[in-house]
Design brief:
This protein is mainly α. The protein has one domain. The chain is built from 2 helices and no strands. The chain is elongated and about 45 Å long. It starts with a helix and ends with a helix. InterPro entries: AA-permease/SLC12A_dom. It is a multi-pass membrane protein. This is L-asparagine permease.
Length: 45
């Protein structure tokens, strides 16, 4: 029961993080992002 719950939480965190990054990356052109800078920082700055 516990390993299944842990696995489920890890998958949810991964999916929500990837989904958030995609939603933040969609409104800006790809040329505005640079290597080593996180998408969250680029969008909110």
């Amino acid at each position: 029961m516990i390993p299944r719950a842990v696995n489920s939480v890890l998958w949810r965190i991964g999916v929500f993080y990837a989904g958030t990054v995609l939603l933040l990356a969609m409104p800006m052109p790809w040329s505005s992002y640079s290597k080593g800078v996180r998408p969250f920082v680029t969008v909110f700055s």
